[in-house]
Amino acid sequence: MNARSWAAACLAVLAVGCADATVTIDDAWIRGARPGSTVAAGYCSITNTTTVSVTIVEFVGTGRVEMHETETANGVSRMRPLERLTVAPGQTMNLAPGGKHLMLYDFDPAVDQTTLNAVLSDGSSLPVTFEVRPWQTP
Ligand SMILES: [Cu+2]
User: Fold this and answer.
1) Ligand 1 mean position to 68 CA, how many Å?
2) Is 4 contained in some domain?
3) Distance in Å, CA 8 to ligand 1 centroid
4) Domain count within the chain
5) Integer CA distances (angstroms), 101 to 35, 45, 56, in order
């Protein structure tokens, strides 16, 4: 890349926010709340496109959002909160049923998509649109 196109690329990155240059978040979906509940779970794939570790410190949405991990010990599975999600250089972290996930409290069951902002440890954030699927989705 020559100097001019490099400068143009940097400007493009600045224009859309630095977070776009550090992680990409794909396949973002939410298993909707059960009838009568306002708690939902969110899943996505987080890919670190850089050569250093990238850490997500929180997801921010309209309700309270926590990062959790499901662990099974002695046949009993329980969830524990995670302070951060750190993705190694070039790696993809999958948030999926039975493992790491987002927990959305005060979730509006009527919406069919919602946007959460992934906040990185450097203070930048990345908006991610989550598609809401029925609560029975496996
Ligand atoms: Cu949970």
Assistant:
1) 5
2) no
3) 42
4) 1
5) 20, 10, 13
Q: What is the pTM of this model?
A: 0.82
First to last CA, the chain: 45
Write out the residue range of the structural domain in which residue 39 sits: 19-133
- Measured in Å, residue 62 CA sits from the centre of ligand 1 at 17
Distance 123 CA to ligand 1 centre (A): 24
The whole-number pLDDT of residue 134 equals 93
Distances (CA, A) of 97 to 38, 49, 50, 69, 103: 18, 24, 27, 10, 11
Query: Block means of pLDDT (10 residues each) for the chain, length 138 residues?
Result: 53 45 92 94 96 96 95 92 97 96 94 96 95 92
